[in-house]
């Protein structure tokens, strides 16, 4: 249970490291494993090389001794000094037993194989093309040993050759030490530069983090610069910046909505509050004041309701929550319905309909009627004398044009570029006495554009004011 707790604590510590540190450690561990495997491979190769060198030396010297013995004359004695000249390497020890003379000769300078009383442990057997070589261990030392009986020129011999496998010599130990030192230095080098490399790789991420720390609800204008990074990092930064832009627009819209609500409701609420105070003071003694107050409060309530509808429409539009039922519709039908409704509500208006096209557009029928009502309401509000309202539908090239014009007060030339701006109202004295929120034409422009159309205004004060709406003609597939 304690071991599990320790392991958990270890992994918690690893998880507690920064992503950059974990990447650095991962790179270093991977390199350390690969480097260690390489060193082990080199170590095994060097060991095999030493072993092969010793085995080849033993076999070569055995063959040279065999050649020397075949050249001896008669029953002559073996000359050790002369035999040494035949040997390939003076590191080989040998022992020749001459059964004919009952004697043996040899040199025992480099090994204790022939003289030691320590036990001999056979560690391996190597088969060459003609001979068998054994590896033995004596007191921690490894030797390659070859032993064979032969009959040469009528004399019987047993020839033994021995060579130490220099796995313990200075050169071998130095090679191993160098490999270990190189491995340690290489790991340290990789650890250092992988740290620097990981900082370079994650520099864009660090910029994202630093920028994110500076971003608050009060300041969403900060943007991230990815620099010259990879395409994926650039995509991540672009996505993050796009999210910030959407958040900034959302916060601005929210602030604008709150500002619009407070601004538009301030006047009607003040009027209602004023009439309530007036009715409290004088209403019970003057019935006419009571009636006037009730009528004005009712009027301001309707005005507030209209304002709230517009504001809620804008809020839903900005949040993408308006459920539009888009179909191919005949705008002339919507115009005809609106005209019938206007005649009932505003019987004083003279209305004309120039129906020059039956082409269809792709739009929401009820929202199109809302658009036409916005223009009609404006015409009624800004026409002080007998009003004349003209609706026109026509086709120009591949566009369906819906024009709503009147003979009212009109729009100043300098105000025309701004009439579709949110909450815009002209500063003229005549307009200040007309109730309005400045949201109607802004909503009209939003509706037109939601149907893929465009809108523009033309005005010649007290002669003609027109709102020209252009939509793409619906083409059946």
Oligomer: single chain
How far is the first residue's CA from the last residue's CA? 73 Å
Cα gyration radius (Å): 52 Å
How many DSSP E strands? Answer: 13
**Kindly state the mean pLDDT as a whole number?**
78
Largest sheet: 6 strands, antiparallel
Number of structurally distinct domains = 3
* Structural class assignment: alpha+beta
Portion in helices: 40-55%
Run of helices and strands: HHHEEEEEEHHHHEHEEHEEHHEE
From the spread of the alpha carbons, the general shape counts as rod-shaped
Low-confidence regions: none
Percent strand equals 15-25%
Strand order of the largest sheet: 2-1-6-5-4-3
Number of helices: 11
Question: Keywords for this structure?
Answer:
477 residues; alpha+beta; Heat Shock Protein 90; 5-stranded mixed sheet; 11 helices; 13 strands
Written description of the protein model:
The protein is an alpha+beta fold and 477 residues long. The protein has three domains: 20-172; 231-317, Orthogonal Bundle (Helix Hairpins); 323-472, 2-Layer Sandwich (Heat Shock Protein 90), CATH 3.30.565.10. 52% of the residues lie in helices and 19% in strands.
Give the topology.
Layout: H1 2-16, H2 19-70, H3 80-86, E1 93-98, E2 103-107, E3 121-127, E4 132-138, E5 141-152, E6 155-164, H4 170-201, H5 203-214, H6 231-282, H7 287-318, E7 327-329, H8 331-345, E8 350-355, E9 361-363, H9 365-381, E10 388-396, E11 399-406, H10 429-432, H11 440-450, E12 454-460, E13 464-472
Parallel strand pairs: 8-10
Antiparallel strand pairs: 1-2, 1-6, 3-4, 4-5, 5-6, 7-9, 10-11, 11-13, 12-13
Helix pairs in contact: 2-4, 6-7, 8-9, 9-11
């Amino acid at each position: 249970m304690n071991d599990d707790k320790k392991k958990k604590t270890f992994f918690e510590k690893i998880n507690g490291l920064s992503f950059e540190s974990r990447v650095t450690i991962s790179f270093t561990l991977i390199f350390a494993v690969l480097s260690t495997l390489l060193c082990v491979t080199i170590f095994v190769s060097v060991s095999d090389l030493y072993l092969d060198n010793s085995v080849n030396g033993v076999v070569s010297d055995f063959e040279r001794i065999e050649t020397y013995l075949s050249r001896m004359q008669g029953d002559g004695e073996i000359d050790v000094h002369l035999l040494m000249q035949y040997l390939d390497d003076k590191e080989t020890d040998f022992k020749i037993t001459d059964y004919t003379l009952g004697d043996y000769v040899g040199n025992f300078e480099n090994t204790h194989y022939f003289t030691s009383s320590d036990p001999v442990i056979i560690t391996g057997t190597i088969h060459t093309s003609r001979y068998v070589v054994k590896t033995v261990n004596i007191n921690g030392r490894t030797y390659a040993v070859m032993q064979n009986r032969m009959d040469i020129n009528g004399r019987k011999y047993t020839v033994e050759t021995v060579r130490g496998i220099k796995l313990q010599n200075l050169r071998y130990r130095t090679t191993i030490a160098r490999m270990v030192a190189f491995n340690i230095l290489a790991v340290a080098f990789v650890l250092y530069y992988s740290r620097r490399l990981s900082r370079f790789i994650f520099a864009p991420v660090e910029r994202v983090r630093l920028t994110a720390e500076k971003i608050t609800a009060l300041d969403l204008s900060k943007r991230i610069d990815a620099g010259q990074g990879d395409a994926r990092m650039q995509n991540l930064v672009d996505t993050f910046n796009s999210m910030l832009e959407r958040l900034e627009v959302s916060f601005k819209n929210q602030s604008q909505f709150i500002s619009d609500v407070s601004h538009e409701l301030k006047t009607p609420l003040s009027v209602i509050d004023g009439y309530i105070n007036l009715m409290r003071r004088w209403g019970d003694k003057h019935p006419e004041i009571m009636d006037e107050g009730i009528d004005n409060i009712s009027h301001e309530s309707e005005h507030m309701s209209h304002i709230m509808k517009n504001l809620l429409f804008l809020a839903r539009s900005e949040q993408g929550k308006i459920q539009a039922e888009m179909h191919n519709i005949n705008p002339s039908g919507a115009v005809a319905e609106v005209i019938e409704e206007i005649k009932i509500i505003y019987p004083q208006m003279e209305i004309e309909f120039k129906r020059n096209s039956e082409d269809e557009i792709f739009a929401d029928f009820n929202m199109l009627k809302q658009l036409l009502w916005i223009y009609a309401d404006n015409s009624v509000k800004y026409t002080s004398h007998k009003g004349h309202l003209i609706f026109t539908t026509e086709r120009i090239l591949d566009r369906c044009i819906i024009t709503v014009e009147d003979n009212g007060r009109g729009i100043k030339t300098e105000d025309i570029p701004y009439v579709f701006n949110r909450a815009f109202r002209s500063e003229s004295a005549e307009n200040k006495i007309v109730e309005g929120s400045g949201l109607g034409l802004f909503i009209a422009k939003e509706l037109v554009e939601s149907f893929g159309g465009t809108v523009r205004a033309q005005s010649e004060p007290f002669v003609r004011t027109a709102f020209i709406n252009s939509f793409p003609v619906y083409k059946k597939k």
